[in-house]
Amino acid sequence: MELKNSIKKYRQVKGFTQEELALKSGVSRQTIISIERYRYKPSLELGLKISLALETDINKLFFLDFKQEETIKSKERKESEKKPIKFQDFKDKDWKKLWVNLKKK
Question: Could you read off the pLDDT of 23-62 as tens digits, one per residue?
């Protein structure tokens, strides 16, 4: 899960430059650049200032991205499926289950 933002999109819709948004928000242009490039996560106070400057609801500017987390979990699952099972990977309880299942057949 990662905090994402749509600041650049809303800034461009309003026709603001990064410098103009920075002035209206009370921060430097570099701060706006860093936020837009996900290098800096703004405080709630700064997020509210930016949303006021853009005349946009803060919930439209900032959101949580769950896709990245799911992609990582999916990759981990695929990797674990590729690994061959080795003799030393088995624990005693695994051998007992295997033995019981073989006896049933």
Answer: 999 999 999 999 999 999 999 999 999 999 999 999 999 9
Are residues 71 and 2 in contact, defined by beta-carbon separation less than 8 angstroms? no
3-state SS string for the chain: CEEEECHHHHHHHHCCCHHHHHHHHCCCHHHHHHHHCCCCCCCHHHHHHHHHHCCCCHHHHEEEECHHHHHHHHHHHHHHHHCCCCHHHCCHHHHHHHHHHHHHC
Q: How many CB atoms lie within 10 A of CB 81?
A: 7
What are 30's two structure tokens? Answer: 């570099």
CATH numbers and ranges of domains, the chain: 1-105 (1.10.260.40)
pTM over the 0.70 mark: no
Q: CA 14 to CA 59: how far, in whole Å?
A: 17
Q: Name residue 92's amino acid.
A: D
